[in-house]
Amino acid sequence: MATHAVRGVSRVIEKLENSIKDGNYYEAHQMYRTIYFRYLAQKKYEELLDMLFKGALLFLDRDQQISGADLAILLVEVLVKSDSANYTEWTPKLCKIFAKISTAYPERDTFIANAIRWSAKGGAMQGHPFLHQGIAQVYWNEKNYINARHHYIYSKDGLGCAKLLIEFQVMQGFSYEEDLFITQVVLQYLCLQNKVTASQTFNNYTKEHPRIRKTRPPYLLPLLNFIWFLLQAVERQVYIQVCVYY
């Protein structure tokens, strides 16, 4: 019986995909939505997730942005309604869809905002760090440095964040801002009580930045010395002494 059901689902998906490949986009989109409501009522979550993911990519690969984004938004709704917590599996898939949705469409922001809210169910109030890392990488590939930096702040990828900051500073910053770029991010990490990623980001930034290239004080820029000592103080829980000293 189960095998028969699986074959039935496979035939439905194949029919939908062929409809898209044949260029019958409107018809295919309406069919996807009809089956979405049917499978949702039957709680066929796994089949529905697979169908929506593949369908969204098929539409987007053919530049059917509105239809692709619509299925992507429905996909996140299913993740929420199914109480899925498989962030490791779905983060790369969601980011793959996100990268394909054009920045010209507001549905893109709706999709990723909903995805972040879904991932927040894992305990991270601002969204799962792994998802933020993937989103940051997409923005970085688009040279959207500001949004990439924002999402790296909520990730645990200090190495990636440092590389982004170096490129951002070298490409768009002023020479006198070399210390400001890393200081801002370190303080934000510390405010989020993420001292491990703060240290990782600082160490990689100062080590790899072409005009710094040092792993320990003394740095030429006084602010970098302060941040280094601040991170040491936070690690050793002697922050008050640093405040008194400075």
List the helices and strands and how they pair.
Blueprint: H1 2-21, H2 25-42, H3 45-61, H4 65-81, H5 87-100, H6 107-119, H7 129-141, H8 145-153, H9 158-172, H10 178-191, H11 195-208, H12 222-236, H13 239-245
Helix pairs in contact: 1-2, 1-3, 2-3, 2-4, 3-4, 3-5, 4-6, 5-7, 7-8, 8-9, 9-11, 10-11, 11-12, 12-13
CA radius of gyration is 23 Å
Tell me the strand percentage band. Answer: under 5%
Q: Rough shape? A: elongated
How many H/I helical runs? 13
Mean pLDDT: 93
Terminal-residue CA separation: 73 Å
Total number of domains: 2
Q: What is the element string, with H for helices and E for strands? A: HHHHHHHHHHHHH
- Poorly predicted runs are none
Can you give the helix content as a percent range?
Answer: over 70%
Q: How many strands in all?
A: 0
Structural class: mainly alpha
Tell me the quaternary state. single chain
Largest sheet: none
What report would you give on this structure?
With 246 residues, the chain is mainly alpha-helical. The chain has helices spanning 2-21, 25-42, 45-61, 65-81, 87-100, 107-119, 129-141, 145-153, 158-172, 178-191, 195-208, 222-236, 239-245. It is elongated, with a radius of gyration of 23 Å. The chain is built from 13 helices and no strands. It has two domains: 1-86; 158-246, no CATH class. The longest helix has 20 residues, at 2-21. Helix content is 76%, strand content 0%. Helix 2 (25-42) runs antiparallel to helix 3. The mean pLDDT is 93. InterPro entries: GET4, TPR-like_helical_dom_sf. Its main location: cytoplasm.
